[in-house]
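User: structure tokens for this one?
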Amino acid sequence: MACHTVRVYVMRHVKTAMNQQRQYMGWTDAPIIEEVEPLQWLPEHVVSSDLQRCIQTAHGYFPQTSLIIEPRLRELCFGDFEGKTYQDLQHNATYRQWIDDPHKHTPPNGEPFMAFTRRVLTSFVEHVANETVFVVHGGVMRAILAEFAPQQQDFWQYEATHDHYYVLAWDNIEQVKEGRRCKYLSVVPIVAKQHTSNNS
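Assistant:
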């Protein structure tokens, strides 16, 4: 990797029971269900969503780094779809409209997609600094990548797994503040301190 002045890391929280059941989980404050071991990594800053699944993950991976808790990095609010699965909703016409075009349709009692991406990206830009880790949700990760990855892709084209993180790099902080796409992007497996091989 070339020498870049600003490197930022974006990772998803460890799994919850709702993740295992493939339920929509936005603002439900569910705990993680897997043990988190510290990483061999001491970042300058760690920024987390205010929901406990992200806070628990951040504290587990980075116990020696102070945590900035940021409510604007919450997942999308799924409204009436919260806690439901695709199987529960697949014959719901409103749901079908939403998954076909989330930019135009909003879950009943949920959050408009535009409002979600606006708050996430505003928060990300405000908190960006070199060697900052963002511990967030799958939708938040995709929103950041859709805006800042080197090549433009649709929101849903980005993978948001629980066992890898993304590295984004720019030449300087001004490029981030101006909303410019990063110069470098990679996906890295999360490896706990006591392990010698990749997991995820």
